[in-house]
Each structure stands twice: as structure tokens, then as C-alpha cells.
Predict the structure of Glutamate-1-semialdehyde 2,1-aminomutase.
Amino acid sequence: MSSPNIDGRAGERSKALFADAQRSIPGGVNSPVRAFAAVGGEPPFIKQARGCELVTEDGATLVDYVGTWGPAILGHAHPEVVEAVCQAARDGLSFGAATAAEVEFAERICGLVPSMVGGMVRLVSSGTEATMSALRLARGFTGRNKIIKCEGGYHGHADMLLVAAGSGAATLGIPGSAGVPADAVRDTVLVPFNDLDAVGAAFEANADEIAAIIIEPVAGNMGCVPPRPGYLEGLRQLCDQHGAVLIFDEVMTGFRVALGGAQARYGVIPDLTCLGKIVGGGMPVGAYGGRRDIMEKVAPLGPVYQAGTLSGNPLSVAAGLTTLRILEQEEPHEALEAATTTLCAGLAERAAKHGIAWTGTQVGPMFSGFFRSGEVWNYEDAKGSDLERFARWHTEMLARGVYLAPSQFEAGFFSTAHDAAAVQRTLDAADAVFELLAKG
Ligand SMILES: *Cc1c(COP(=O)(O)O)cnc(C)c1O
């Protein structure tokens, strides 16, 4: 009997597909990090996903910690979510008109996210749309232009947010992408994550000009970096003091680090919240919402324009609504966190056993392992990791059936479908890979 194939590295078929892909799609991928540029090698192509597992085009079965970059908190292809989408599809894919389901969806979201209780929410189709719309709204509401964001913070690919991370003491933005006019980021002020003094200084230097702070309350796009105690409270205070809108970008943390997101977990209520990923249950959905007096500025109620042909389309709403309903009914967050802690403790223990410098971070079912010693509180710290070692770790874990995000600067995601066997398989693989890395 042959044992199941778990070598997830690109085989013949994935390599052939990737070669084809590169002819017709830039870099062969429809989102850059999928290309494996940071870890080398070629990406395996995915044929199927169920529960906590992915099946590649080469026939390997892998334990998945990418979870489609966050949405798959119930695991892949959850039967109830799939059924809801199929049912919705039979009734029509999109009407571009109001539906009963989107009202139910909006009410459920507003009931779960503390900053939206008694407020309003607008559905869009991606996290990027949510953040750029929330910022337009904050600017329209305050009549101010400048925004504050963190180095290493990711809020989608709108021009004003593509500012070179880690540009040190720079307070004025520099385009982080070709094609972004300098003027588009002139009003973006950069601060390091977890540094309240820097935010205070930014407010002083731009008195009465800051429309909003946009922040991931738990950073997830420099790897997982938790907020220091008091940091979010301090941001709330500074925004109140200076009349700026506090925007939590909970595209990644929403419904993940707690049912009510990071704002529920830490008890700090922003003015506006951006959602994505889990809110769509695997379909393209984003949302922004919060304080009623601010949301009343959105068209057609107010002067801030924002629209979308497919916004609130029935398939996305069905997937999102069903996902949120299951999360609300099953309340899995405590168990998810405990299981993630078991995984993280196991990884740290095995790293230590083999003398590998490793700093683990975790908030609920979101985690990272940085290849460095010492604490990680911001992008500078994260960048101090041994990226070559991470690349080898990634390749060798993949060879042993564990699919991790192909970058040190991404978080791992645990789901309700990850069982003890999946965790054990991961830890066994990690033990072998750490041993390999220790040999140099
Ligand atoms: C993924 C992500 C986005 C962008 O969402 P898209 O749906 O990819 O446009 C924005 N903010 C955060 C915090 C994210 O993790």
C-alpha cells in the first residue's frame, strides 16, 4: 500500500501550469504573494480544499494554515456555507437591486461588531474597497485631508495607502509602488506600530489636519504582532482629543480574534470599522461601518460617493450570512484559541529543543513564528528576522505536507476544522525541519 502523498512542493503538473500561467497572467498569479517569490521555488496549484486540507494538482494533501488568507475560519467548503451559496445561485447570481438577505446580513454584522451597534454598515466587494471608502468618508466627515497609518500596516492597494513601509523617520509619504503619484500619498503620515509617542507627535506636527488614523488593531501583515497594552486605548484618546476619526481595519481580525473582532477583545471602540475576509465566508465581500452620524454622510444619504455593481450580491451575502450565523451559534473562539496555543507552544518547544532562534506570537487563532530572538512589536522588529531561514523552513514544511503562507510577514490562521491529528502532523514536520535548520 502506498502512503498518501504529502509533498506539497510543485510537481510536474504544477510546474507546467505555472509556466502556462506566466504567459497570460503577470507573474503567473492574480495576487503577488502567491508567486512564492520570497521563499523561492514554484507554487503548487490547488485543485480542491476541504476542512483544514488542500489538495494540489500534483495530488498531495496538505494541512493548510493560509485559510485563503483568513476567510476560512470554519475550514474550507463548509457544507452549510456551500449549500447556502448553491441555493442562492439558483435564484439568480446578481440583481443589482435591494434584497431581503442583505438587510438580514447588515443587521447581523451591526449586532456583532461593537462600533456598529446602533450604527450602520455598507457592503462592498473587497477589503481594499472597504478601507478606501472608509478613508474617503473620514475625510468627507472631518473636512480634513491627512491620514495616519503604520509602517508595515497593510490596508489594501489604494494609492494613498501604498506608502513605503519602514522609511524610518519619514513623516511624509513616499510612493511604495510605481504608478502612485507623489501627490496621492502626500497626505499619508507614517508612524511605527505600537508607538503612541509617534502618533502624538504626528498630531502635533499636523495640527487640525488629520482626518483619521487607520490601523490594524492586531497587526497581521508584518506577521502577527499584538498591540502593546494601552496602545489602542491611547489611539482612541488621541483621536478624541484631536477630532480625528479612529478607523480599525479589521479585515483580518474581524470575527477572528473574537466574534466581535479586536475591538471586542480589547474593549476599544473605533468610530469606523473595515471588514473583509471572514465576513464573506470565502466569497468576495468587504464592509465598512460604524457611527451613525458618520455613516449618514454616505450617498445617497450624504455627499460622500461610493457605489458597487456587485455590492451585496446574493452569493456573497449567502456565504457571509451563513458563516456569521454558524460562528454566532457555535461560539468556537475559545476552543480555537486554546488549540492554537497548543500548536504555538509545540512549535516553540521544538524550536528551543533544536536551538533555533524563534519568537512566536499569537492572538486567538492568528499566529506567527519569527526566525529571530527577542520580542517583536513592530515592522522593524519583524524585519530583523532571518528571512533565508524562513524560506528554507517554508520549503521543508511544504515538503512534509504543511502549507504555510510563503512570507515571514504573513500570519497563520487556525480554523475549526483543524483537529488534533492536523496539529500533530504539523508538529512532527516542524521537529524534523528545525533539526535540519540547526545543521545549517
Ligand atoms: C487583506 C487585507 C486587506 C485587503 O483586503 P482585499 O480583500 O485583499 O482587498 C485590507 N486590510 C487588511 C488588514 C487585510 O488583511
